[in-house]
Design goal:
Blueprint lengths: L36 H11 L9 H10 L5 H4 L2 H6 L5 H7 L4 H10 L9 H4 L10 H6 L28 E5 L2 E5 L27 H13 L5 E5 L8 H12 L6 E6 L1 H4 L6 H7 L5 E6 L8 H12 L4 E7 L7 H13 L2 E8 L13 H11 L10 E6 L4 E5 L4 E5 L2 E5 L5 E5 L5
Parallel strand pairs: 2-3, 3-4, 4-5, 5-6, 6-7, 7-8
Antiparallel strand pairs: 1-2, 8-9, 10-11, 11-12
């Protein structure tokens, strides 16, 4: 049965037919089993528009060297990007001049967390510099095998706040709904490295999704659902539509959010058909994981524009990482670039203490220094909220430089962004 705005309202299984005819075994994504006229038309519609995305000069040079026989249509097909992810030592040795430490880690003596990088994102890595910021976020090093004080496999205590598989219910009015444990590209500092990319649960079951939806439906206090994983945008359009339509049928669910890094590591996924489908489920928000201004390519700009033009508010989430983005200038360039793409900087996260993340984490003072260096020196909406997600499940706590110096009688003493002091009368009006 079809409801308003053409949203499917049947109670059947998630569809096995997607918009493409490619089997994505590695992703655990069901592809079309029969090429219906409608699915073929949608697939062709996607592919005839995406070659325009290829305008980044670094990627052009990379393609010419390593993928010269790959057509524009293939390269700009997100299914092709997933099928050709780079994940082995041999593949990486062909693309990068690996350091001894990287090679040792890739040889199996580092973290057990899997490696996978889309060809597009690999094109942005410096082939000769192991300290390149993007390279450090996706290529393992042996430091991942060192457990430091305070680190834990589940540092945020998500498992104790999981009433049914796939749902984390920590805050009174919102839940985290984990749809998949698959990402197109794996970040080395991933909070859920204990589960993400694990082959034992690669294709999360339909029954799990249904039980999660029933839990949300049975708890009328839940007004906000954040879809995450893994990465929800690695699912087919049809499966996303199936999930979104069922969430939209729950009267007390007011807002749905999608957390993703796909627009950054695989912008080819943000097709016109995806944006058109998502636009039917407003109010829908998308939170995008950005790390460094080197990610702000023409392809990513087009992907964000497509989402924004579909009426979807965009916000960013950035993890503070030592030696990668832990200085004011880098963060300013990132946030200014995002604002120009219509993405509002939302969270700056202190790196979660997952096992083996010590080489990524900065002192908390570094985050405060960055916020202080941004506040007053750029637009207020370009300054994110700096937060620590409390270990053990305490939730996010915002941190700010102290701009309130104290009180003097009925005056509050304030310090502005350049250090000047001002009085604000805070007594009773006469």
């Amino acid at each position: 049965m079809m409801g308003k705005q053409g949203i499917c309202l049947d109670d059947g299984e998630p569809p096995d037919r997607g918009s493409a005819s490619v089997v994505l075994e590695t992703a655990g994504i069901d592809a079309p089993k029969d090429k219906t006229r409608e699915s073929i038309r949608a697939r062709v519609s996607e592919l005839v528009t995406v070659p325009k995305l290829l305008t980044n000069s670094e990627t052009l040079r990379f393609r010419k060297k390593f993928f010269k026989n790959v057509s524009d249509i293939e390269w700009n097909d997100w299914h092709w990007q997933i099928r050709h992810r780079i994940s082995t030592l041999g593949e990486l040795e062909n693309l990068l001049q690996l350091s001894d430490d990287e090679r040792t880690a890739l040889s199996g003596n580092g973290s057990a967390f899997p490696v996978a990088i889309t060809p597009y994102y690999a094109s942005l890595l410096d082939p000769d510099d192991p300290s390149h910021p993007l390279r450090r976020t996706v290529i393992p090093v042996t430091a991942e095998n060192i457990k430091s004080q305070g680190e834990d496999e589940d540092p945020l205590g998500e498992e104790k706040d999981t009433p049914v598989p796939g749902v984390v219910h920590r805050y009174p009015d919102r839940v985290l709904f984990l749809l998949t444990d698959f990402c197109s590209t794996y970040c080395r500092y991933c909070t859920r490295s204990r589960t993400v990319g694990c082959s034992k649960d690669r294709n999360l079951s339909t029954d799990r999704w249904k039980k999660a939806i029933e839990y949300i439906k049975s708890n009328s206090s839940i007004r906000d659902v954040l879809l995450s994983g893994g990465d929800p945008l690695t699912l087919s359009n049809d499966k996303l539509e199936w999930l979104l339509s069922r969430l939209r049928r729950i009267p007390h669910v007011e807002v749905v959010r999608i957390g993703t890094k796909v627009p950054v590591v695989m912008p080819q996924r943000i097709t016109p058909s995806l944006c058109k489908m998502l636009s039917r489920f407003h109010p829908l928000w998308v939170s995008i994981h950005f790390t460094h201004p080197a990610e702000l390519t023409a392809e990513v700009k087009r992907a964000c524009e497509n989402l924004a033009n579909a009426g979807i508010p965009l916000q960013s989430q950035t993890v503070l990482l030592s030696g990668i983005n832990d200085d004011v200038d880098t963060m300013r360039r990132l946030f200014h670039g995002l604002v120009k793409m219509r993405v509002r900087p939302y969270y700056l996260y202190q790196c979660d203490p997952i096992v083996g993340s010590g080489h990524f984490r900065t002192p908390v003072e570094k985050g405060l220094e960055i916020i202080k260096g941004l506040r007053g020196y750029t637009s207020g909406f370009a300054v994110p909220m700096y937060v620590i997600d409390c270990p053990g499940g305490g939730g996010k706590v915002p941190l700010m430089p102290n701009y309130m110096i104290g009180r003097d009688g009925e005056d509050v003493i304030l310090q502005n962004y350049v250090g000047n002091h001002y009085r604000y009368f805070d007594g009773k009006a006469s």
